[in-house]
Amino acid sequence: MTKARLLRLSVVLVSIFMILLIIVYWDNVGTAHFYLHTSFSRPHSSGAIPGITAGEDWEALPDVDEFLAKLLSSNLKQNSSISRKTEQLLVQGSSKPVVSNLEENVRGYDWSTHNAQNSLDQEKLQIERQRTLREFCANSSFTFPTKERSFDDIPNYELNHLIVDDRHGIIYCYVPKVACTNWKRVMIVLSESLLDQGVPYRNPLDIPREHVHNTSTHLTFNKFWRRYGKFSRHLMKIKLKKYTKFLFVRDPFVRLISAFRSKFELENEEFYRRFAIPMLKLYSNHTNLPTSVSEAFGAGLKVTFSDFIQYLLDPRTEKMAPFNEHWRQVYRLCHPCQIDYDFIGKLETLDEDAAYLLQLLKVDRLLRFPPSYRNRTASSWEDDWFAKIPLAWRQQLYKLYEADFVLFGYPKPENLLKD
């Protein structure tokens, strides 16, 4: 009698488990036309599961992870024909960029074919960037906050910058002020996560900025918990092993200058109310400030770069709330010591890096990376911007962003840190 009950209980539990897996499968695959290109950093045989390296890493996966990975990959052949049709449509619609407004009216299109020598140089560059990152992540003498924690220790809300494209097996960690608007556009086109009159966008430049930065547009890791519950971390780890992961970075001090210019030198109502008013009160001793940014600018009341640096260095700032994403350190946005990135791009070499990355992702036939503004904030401007900032502040600021300088191979700005 007892054995019969145990048998029935086992059947019920297995049935419930299978139902949950089917729900996960259809949520993740059935509605997204799951389709993976082979990850350039994860070679595999024709019999292996696409994107997963055969050998010890795969063997070491827990049973649940292994089963979910196989389940997520089982629909690959069925959807490949759909993806090929989509590719043909995208190619037809991406021959020319469509400039929709003055802000996107950019010049300097580069449709040139990148030759083999350039690809070889890019490959060497990637090896060097990844080597630098991994060496300092493994270097016990180089420390910074959160370095030693594991991926499981990262709370879900800190994974909101990891955008997932299940169609092509891509994960992009976006860093504000590092061409993230256009990279988000590329991810929208690839994942078909946004429609225009019932049809997916084919040209990145057609996508309005207000849609690009709408959080509901993108599938990010922090949304997994609501979709998959207790399976969310399993799925994240599987995707991190299977998918191609990339990010773009920038000289940390230049990124700060760019953030200051766009958020405090231009009229931005949100940033005026959330950040400029407190800065003007705390560091410029202003009282009775206008409630709108247009009134403040009309009265000549603007945050100075000095105010901004004081705000970043003030220990009270992060006691109130974490840094805004536009000036939060990259290591806090993208967790490079917990996530093994396959590609590290830099804004300083954006055109070359973007073209090479799209080739490696095997999506260069679908779209081209949108051309960028020519008047990017130049690193040569650092001396002028920091000229009136006291030496002690500059040294403190470097310590605050030192991990980003070191991990991503940016030279220490000695000219700013000495008399």
UniProtKB/TrEMBL annotation:
Family: Belongs to the sulfotransferase 2 family.
Biological processes annotated in GO: carbohydrate biosynthetic process; proteoglycan biosynthetic process
Enzyme class at the top of the EC tree: transferase
PANTHER family: CARBOHYDRATE SULFOTRANSFERASE, CARBOHYDRATE SULFOTRANSFERASE 12
Membrane topology classification: Single-pass type II membrane protein
Record flagged with keyword Transmembrane helix: yes
Protein name: Carbohydrate sulfotransferase
Compartments, record wording: Golgi apparatus membrane
Transmembrane segments: 7-26
